[in-house]
Amino acid sequence: MYDLVIRDATIFDGAGSAPTQGDLAVSEGKIAAVGGKLGAAKQTVDAGGLALAPGIIDGHTHYDAQITWDPFVDPSPSLGVTSVVIGNCGFTIAPCKPADRDLTMRHLTHVEGMSLDALRAGIRWDFESFPQYMDMLVKNGVGPNVAAFAGHSAIRTFVLGEDATQRAATEAEIAKMADLVREAMKAGAVGFASSTAEAHNGEGGLPMPSRLADDRELRTLVKAMGEGGKGVYMLTRGRLTSIPYLEEIAAESGRPVVIAALFHSNTNPEGAFKTLEQVNEARARGHKLTAQTSACPLSMDFTFRSPYVFESMQAWKPAMAAHGDEALKRIYADKSWRQSVKDELRAAQGQRLFNSEWNKLFIVETGKPENRAKEGADLASLAKTAGADPFDYILDLALSENLDTYFVAQLLHNDEKAVGRILADPATHISLSDAGAHLTFFCDAGFGLHLMGHWSRDRGVMSLQQAVHRLSGQPASLFGIKDRGFLREGQAADLLLFDPKTVGRGPNKRVLDLPSGAARLTASGMGVHGVWVNGTRVTDGSGLCVDRDARPGKVLRDFAA
Q1: Rg of the Cα trace of the chain?
Q2: Residue 293 clears pLDDT 80, i.e. is over it
Q3: How many CB atoms lie under 10 A from the CB of residue 194?
Q4: Which residues of 157-179 are buried (b: 16+ CB within 10 A; e: fewer)?
Q5: Are 228 and 89 members of one domain?
Q6: Which residue, of 379, 412, 445, is where some domain finishes?
Q7: Is there a single domain that holds both residue 389 and residue 453?
Q8: Is 193 helix (H, G, I), strand (E, B) or coil?
């Protein structure tokens, strides 16, 4: 007798094959049989009219801190996700010396949009080394399956301390970092992650440590990762890190390179396609480059206490270095500082996260009742009506409301025709949820449901079997995740039961449930009828349904070459 049989489902196998109709049986956490009418089970689920697919593998998350206080990494399991890859961009919390804990948390407050109070109250520091962090996850248990990158910025901070954000490393320091990468790989890291992106700054506008690495350091650490014939190098690249350079890294190391973040920009409409063309040319030469892209428009909620959308600008550095509201207000009121920002915005069109598209920046929530009528309006229209420069207008409004005004910026990836072309290219890895980060800015943890609903069903950019493959079988193969990503006998029973007619992501909502009571954005799924992790049901039609002490996930530590 099987433990579970899901009967009469439309089965999508994760490999992109045409769907079949039949049953799927589970025993001891693994798929025991697929197809036809299967025998008796201790538990039966009637799936008539529903689709059954492998659980979604979210390859770009930042749950490294949250998972220490929330092993189920809410909201991902209720959005169809059964496996998460953490440590992307190199923004990990292990290894970390006790003396560097506050420094590490302060880095994350800006680059990952996290509350410092929440991090201080929530992170369980039951580790110092990367192996100890992995062992802690195993001991505490995890909700979904978890794979972890060795993170460049954490490793650099471990070796250089506060100098990690100030200077290049010496030969001896690089050798120590390489040893830490090797240690992490032996402990089960999925690979090595880093960032050269200009938008990635820590507290006070200091660059994240990995941005100080020179070519010698980067090549040495990637080679150290790949010495055992395993591992993926993941990089969020800045403007000066070229695709040909990353092809050299792939050729030297013999390892795959995953490159973030491929977004379409209306102010540089051909940029993403030129990047994708270079990636495809490298792949044709036998070098394993993959571009990470998103199924969702990149939009961010923010206030001017932490306006991430502007923080990659050189002119914004004085504001990032300011401490407290009063210091910020003085800078925001300074006409010469305002002019320096305007000049940089004008000079760097198409090169920044925000490119003066004021018509795509909206007021979400005002701080004063008399301004409620402005909610939902775009800044271009409001500034035009007032006869003001949009940048002056937005700052004056924020200042008049004690910096309490909430804005949303629709930044990138909002030309649906162009985005559809990018998503359809098999050289892209559809991910970039950033789940666990930017908690007050956005929540794209439901990206997989959005791909199947909006892009497959509604827009017809790809078939449903192709969408399922891009969310399961493809990332499993990309990261070398064994025995997952496909509905085949012997594979782990990571399952998603959904209604193809209604599947999608619901609206974001703000909740106050972080440690210390800090706010975050979360989202709900639509059309999700069940999610199973290693054969244990974690989600039903109303959301998370599992006993929080069950923790059926596995810490993934053994990957295919």
Answers
A1: 23
A2: yes
A3: 31
A4: bbbbeeebbeeebeeebbeebbe
A5: yes
A6: 412
A7: no
A8: strand
Name, in order, each residue with C-beta under 8 angstroms of 171's C-beta and a sequence gap of 6 or more. Answer: none
Instruction: Report d(CA 127, CA 449) in Å as an integer.
Output: 35
pTM listed for this prediction: 0.91
Do 189 and 305 lie in a common domain? no
**Structural domain span for residue 371:** 300-412
Q: Are residues 130 and 218 in the same domain?
A: yes
Q: How far is CA 166 from CA 108, 150, 159, 316, 376, in A?
A: 17, 21, 13, 19, 42
The tokens for 314 are 């050189």
Helix and strand numbers, DSSP H then E, in the chain: 17, 22
Q: 6, 14, 60, 15: which is closest to 34 by C-alpha? A: 6
Residues 187, 274, single domain; the answer is: yes
Residue at 427 is within a domain:
yes
Provide the strand spans (E) within 28-69. Answer: 30-34, 41-46, 51-54, 56-58
Which residues fall within 8 angstroms of residue 388, CB to CB, at 6 or more apart? 396
Give just the sign of the alpha carbon dihedral 76, 80, 83, 86: negative
The rounded distance, in Å, linking the Cα atoms of 558 and 264 is 35
The H-assigned helical ranges of 208-315 are 215-226, 243-253, 271-284
| CA 534 – CA 26 distance, rounded (Å) | 9
Checking phi first, is residue 146 left (phi over 0); if not, alpha (psi -120 to 50) or beta? beta
- How many domains does the chain contain in total? 2
Residue 56 tokens read as 């979604």
Last residue of one domain, picked from the residues 412, 428, 459:
412
Residues 397 and 428 in one domain: no
Strand partners, 145: 83
Name which of 287, 297, 280 is nearest 428 in CA terms: 280
Q: What percent of the chain has pLDDT over 90?
A: 81
**How far is residue 351's CA from residue 289's CA, in Å, rounded to a whole number?**
23
- For 499, the token pair is 């209604």
pLDDT tens column, 100-124: 999 999 988 877 778 889 999 999 9
Q: What is the pLDDT of residues 420-472, one digit of tens each?
A: 999 999 989 999 999 988 776 678 999 999 999 999 999 999 999 999 999 99
Q: Which of 438, 387, 403 is nearest to 322 (CA)?
A: 403
Map tokens 């007050």 to a residue.
440
Asked if 221 and 352 sit in the same domain, the reply is no
Which helix (H) or strand (E) segment holds residue 20: the answer is: strand 20-27
Spatial contact of 412 and 444, defined as CB atoms under 8 Å apart: no
